[in-house]
Design goal:
Blueprint: E1 12-13, E2 22-24, E3 29-34, E4 40-47, E5 50-57, E6 63-68, E7 74-82, E8 87-103, H1 105-108, H2 117-122, E9 126-133, E10 150-153, H3 163-176, E11 180-186, H4 198-203, H5 208-220, H6 222-231, E12 262-266, E13 268-269, E14 280-291, E15 301-309, E16 311-316, E17 319-323, E18 335-340, E19 349-358, E20 364-365, E21 372-376, E22 383-384, E23 387-398, H7 400-404, H8 419-425, E24 435-439, H9 448-466, E25 473-476, H10 492-506, E26 510-513, H11 529-543, E27 555-562, E28 565-571, E29 577-578, E30 587-590, E31 597-598, E32 600-604, E33 607-611, E34 620-623, E35 633-634, E36 644-645
Parallel strand pairs: 2-8, 8-11, 8-24, 9-11, 24-25, 25-26
Antiparallel strand pairs: 1-3, 3-6, 4-5, 4-7, 7-8, 9-10, 12-23, 13-20, 14-19, 14-23, 15-18, 15-20, 15-21, 16-17, 16-19, 21-22, 27-28, 28-33, 29-35, 30-31, 30-34, 32-33, 34-36
Helix pairs in contact: 3-11, 9-10
């Protein structure tokens, strides 16, 4: 049964139809909302010479729904719903293409945290791109609506939005010349089964055990789950953005009285095990007065603080020099580096004050001592800022995990099956969409065999929920990550990529955007989201927009033994070459003993010859088969080859779907 929010007006439109919305072009438009049961509702869409209308009556639970005729790309329009007593309306409505942007943290990752973020944010003046950021909600029964509104893409709004989604939408807006609506409903660290409905999971024998475990937890741990939910109700009282209480008290200024402030050794978490503030969430201030060389006075300095968990506002001598703000997703993992203008440095003494907000989990400075420093922008000399600082709480509460332990797995736990489907997917339907982009898999690595059917089941779940046929579904592969192996190895990350590719080649109207060459060995969140978005858009141009400028990565077709070599054929292999002009790397070969060794390779048209002089009778070939492989083969469109293993599935004799 759907959950009905108690604080909503009796007569209203669903939030997807708020001012600034993008509605899907070229298809009938379903509009819905709520009214008193039995109320007759008239919905009108007007703009220029166009005026469309439809009528419906609210059913016993208050929901009403109408369908308006399809419209081509364009606008703006005014959408109005009225009854005999009430009227609600939303303006600046555009028709264009609507894309859902979903997955875990790499899709959730904010534009303000990407490569060249300041320039990207400052230039994000795209009034024909609209953003709809779905809040993270995990519930066991479906919500009726989501608590958010559409925003016009601008430097003021794009920073907290999905970077991959934004760069994807920006490219489509440029190439297709239509308005683009982007609906972000991603949540870091969540597995694919959280986004799927029950029926789809139960229908797949591979994922059915997940549901059986969930049902057992819901039954056996009901009291524990209810107790945890009661404890977690404190979240609404946290200082999400109630105002900076410390700055008016002078806590950022050099002259503040530090009597009563405690000492904190940084870097360090305020809630580390056995720390005085273990188990606390909230807002804390840190201060340090630092002496600098006389020659630094009046010069611009670089202040490095390492990662801060979660958000910070950093001051020098009472002036704000940098902040992640409260809405930046993933800020906890980003090293802070701010410029201190020389005009703030009139003497050899300066005071650094950092306001830190944390809503759950760890809080404080989470980097290494070497990451905390002060240095001139034009010199390599530096001063360490690690060590003793002063600390004072602005506001704090006991976290639910500190009181009740870890959240029980089961209903309301976001990593449990169906919980994000109910809170973040189902409330969006049946809103018209063009398709979906999906960046997820890290949390399912280690279960690749299950993922081969789990991801298709989730896609089927969404397509059934939205009722718009097999709408396009574009998957981002896992990027290269972790330490590089010196020898060929088995790899759960490689197997997960294989499962992603299996989905792309077996699920109708789907494709894979390969990112095997743009990851970072030491960071699971690579910052180059621009290229991820571009490659998704390139794939969309090929399979969705039937645009000849689109393209897909080279993909394994088959391999056959020719003497002591293996000859490998590829779909999308036109113009095969290496990205660096060197010989192909990343290939491994094995004989009957199945012991893989690195191999030499040579590109011949759209095929690759692979051999090793010590393997006279090869039986299998692999490419890019590790978490962070050295690879360099691309096609004529400079799209990287998809890693593969010829021993993973029956040979394919036809091109991809």
């Amino acid at each position: 049964m759907a959950q009905v929010p108690s604080d909503l007006p009796a007569f209203r439109l669903a939030n997807l139809f708020s001012t600034g919305a993008v509605l899907q072009r070229d298809r009938p438009v379903t509009v819905w909302g709520w009214a008193k049961a039995g109320t007759s509702v008239t919905v009108e869409l007007a703009g220029g010479a166009v005026k469309l209308a439809a009528r419906a009556s609210a059913n016993p639970d208050g929901r009403w729904q109408v369908t308006l005729p399809a419209r081509p790309a364009g606008g703006p329009y005014m959408l109005k719903a009225s009854s005999g007593e009430d009227t609600v309306q939303a303006g600046d409505i555009l028709f264009g293409d609507v894309w859902i942007c979903s997955g875990q943290s790499n899709m959730q990752w904010s534009t303000s945290l990407t490569k060249n973020a300041p320039a990207e944010v400052a230039s994000a003046n795209h009034p024909r791109i609209r953003l709809f950021n779905v809040p993270n909600v995990a519930v066991p029964t479906s919500l009726l609506d989501v608590n958010t509104k559409w925003q016009v893409c601008s430097p003021q709004t794009v920073g907290a939005f999905s970077a991959v989604g934004y760069f994807f939408g920006r490219e489509l807006n440029r190439t297709q010349q239509v308005p683009i609506g982007l609906i972000a409903n991603a949540w870091g660290g969540m597995p694919a089964e959280s986004f799927a409905d029950r029926d789809s999971l139960w229908a797949d024998p591979a994922s059915r055990p997940i549901l059986e475990r969930f049902d057992l937890a819901a039954k056996n741990d009901a009291e524990k789950i209810a107790a945890y939910q009661a404890l977690s109700s404190h979240a609404a009282t946290l200082p999400v953005d109630t105002g900076n209480e410390g700055e008016p008290k002078g806590w950022a200024k050099p002259t503040v009285d530090e009597t009563g402030w405690t000492f904190a050794n940084l870097p360090g978490a305020w809630d580390a095990p056995n720390a005085p503030d273990e188990g606390m969430d909230g807002v804390a201030w840190y201060r340090r007065t630092q002496t600098i060389p006389a020659e630094w006075v009046g010069k611009d300095l670089t202040l490095s603080l390492g990662p801060i968990d979660d958000n910070d506002w950093t001051y020098v001598n009472g002036t704000l020099v940098g902040s992640t703000g409260i809405d930046v997703v993933g800020a906890w993992a980003v090293p802070r580096e701010y410029t201190i203008p020389g005009r703030l440095l009139a003497s050899t003494s300066l005071t650094i004050a950092v306001r830190v907000f944390d809503s759950s989990g760890g809080g404080g400075f989470s980097g290494t001592p070497g990451a905390m420093s002060l240095r001139p922008k034009t010199s390599g000399d530096s001063i360490s800022l690690a060590g003793p600082w002063r600390m004072k709480w602005e506001r704090r509460v006991k976290s639910p995990t500190a009181v009740g332990g870890e959240q029980p797995w089961g209903p309301f736990n976001p990593s449990a099956p169906m919980q994000l489907y109910h809170g973040m997917v189902r409330p969006l339907a049946p809103f018209g969409v063009k398709g979906a982009i999906w960046y997820q898999g890290e949390s399912n690595a280690g279960r690749a065999e299950q993922y081969r059917t789990l991801l298709p089941a989730m896609i089927s779940s969404w397509r059934k929920t939205f009722g718009q046929g097999d709408f396009p579904f574009l998957v981002v592969s896992l990027a290269n990550f972790m330490e590089r192996n010196s020898d060929p190895v088995e790899s759960d990350w490689a197997e997960l990529r294989d499962a992603q590719w299996f989905t792309a080649k077996t699920v109708p109207n789907s494709a894979l955007a390969m990112t095997i060459d743009i990851g970072e060995a030491g960071d699971i969140h690579p910052r180059n989201k621009q290229e991820v978005g571009r490659r998704l858009a390139v794939a969309a141009r090929r399979i969705v927009y039937k645009d000849v400028t689109g393209g897909l990565s080279p993909a394994f077709l088959d391999a056959k033994v020719v003497g002591a070599k293996m000859l490998v054929r590829f779909a999308e292999g036109k113009g095969l070459k290496t990205s660096d002009g060197q010989a192909p790397v990343g290939f491994a070969i094995a004989g009957a003993d199945r012991k893989f060794v690195w191999a030499q390779a040579r590109i011949v048209g759209s095929t690759v010859e692979v051999w090793n002089s010590h393997v006279l009778k090869p039986v299998a070939v692999r490419y890019g088969w590790s978490a962070n492989p050295a690879v360099n083969v691309v096609n004529g469109e400079d799209l990287p080859m998809i890693p593969f293993r010829s021993d993973a599935w029956p040979m394919v004799t036809a091109g991809r779907r």
